[in-house]
Design a protein that fits this description.
351 residues, mainly alpha, 17 helices, 73% helix
């Protein structure tokens, strides 16, 4: 369905992006140099974003790619904090990220590289549009942090959310609204609320993001079962619907295909909205162009996510020495602060 109906696109700046984001990961100490050299390009983090945000100015796309790479590293830190029971370390990080979301310029030199890199990437994104857009992005990312915190709590207590609970939580941990927000600096146009909240536009956005989240669940299910993860649509179906692994895979696939069909219907309706918008005032054509840019990149999300999951080493579980420990992460060589945090955790647990 994807290969036939959703041709693959790639931003022409992509080859330079690979080099820039690889250098950024090193500069910000987000991955050890040997891991960057061996795995960074093969993880295809820049490919994913360069296949989605077509038409973005080069500097905007570079900031998006760095932020996306940071997001994957953050996700890995979250997983390792769960695996090693580093509760105090995780709580401290969540608080620091909330603070950096509101005032990134104050956290550019933070001693935790993950906080400093986050602050630097979103500080660049905050320069793209208005303060209103910045505030919306920040509001949406606060929700993402809180959702990750909920996942941390669930995993520490062995709680598998119900299917409905999982879908609601996944839309936040996957950062649906963040990736949709970033369509606007890509189009270099801030959309008015009546466009963003238009029923067809909202359905198209939700469909492309649900596709991405649930296709990710489908492809990452072996990795997450091996790593004792509890948050996957398939795992919730097995736990709460009482079905087999194979039946869960079939059901997740059915839902994934449903998002494709939903998008195609909504996409046609958004085009009608764009046509009507062309006749609204002196800037109608400009706004219509922005609407088409946004829905066009929602369409790109399908092909970009599809190929990312088939090409990225992040999901090549069968090639790993340890199916529960991805080779591109490490628990050695942590910062002094991280080691001290773990010691604090251990003291607290003993107490």
């Amino acid at each position: 369905m994807i290969e036939d109906a959703f041709p693959r696109n790639l931003h022409p700046y992509w080859p330079k992006l690979q080099e820039k984001t690889r250098s950024w990961l090193l500069e910000k100490h987000l991955m050890p140099a040997d891991k960057v050299a061996k795995y960074a390009d093969g993880l295809c983090y820049t490919d994913l974003m360069a296949g989605y945000y077509i038409g973005a100015p080069n500097d905007v796309l570079s900031a998006i790619c760095d932020y996306s790479a940071w997001f994957f590293v953050w996700d890995d830190r979250h997983d390792r904090d769960v695996i090693h029971g580093r509760t105090a370390s995780w709580r401290r990080l969540a608080v620091q990220l909330h603070a950096a979301t509101e005032a990134p310029q104050l956290h550019l030199d933070h001693k935790d590289p993950l906080v400093a890199a986050f602050a630097e990437s979103i500080n660049r994104l905050y320069g793209s549009l208005s303060h209103t857009w910045n505030a919306r992005f920040a509001r949406h990312f606060h929700v993402v942090i809180d959702a990750y915190d909920q996942e941390f709590h669930n995993r520490m207590t062995g709680t598998v959310p119900s299917v409905d609970e999982y879908i609601a939580l996944r839309r936040n941990t996957f950062a649906h609204w963040i990736w949709l927000d970033l369509l606007e600096p890509t189009a270099q146009h801030e959309l008015p609320a009546w466009v963003r909240k238009n029923e067809a536009f909202a359905r198209a956005g939700l469909a492309c993001q649900d596709f991405a989240a649930w296709y990710n669940d489908l492809c990452s299910l072996p990795k997450e079962l091996a790593g004792d993860e509890l948050h996957n649509l398939g795992i919730s179906l097995i736990k709460h619907e009482g079905i087999s692994l194979q039946e869960a895979i079939v059901e997740v696939r059915r839902r994934v295909e449903g998002t494709i069909e939903e998008f195609l219907v909504a996409e046609a309706e958004v085009e009608q909205l764009a046509v009507a918008t062309e006749n609204i005032g002196p800037h109608g054509r400009e706004l219509a162009t922005a609407i088409r840019s946004c829905v066009g990149n929602m369409r790109n999300w399908f092909s970009s996510v599809y190929w990312f999951h088939h090409e990225s080493g992040r999901y090549a579980v069968d090639s790993w020495d340890d199916r529960a420990t991805p080779p591109y992460i490490t628990d050695s060589g942590r910062t002094e602060q991280a080691v001290q945090s773990e010691q604090t955790d251990q003291v607290g647990e003993r107490a």
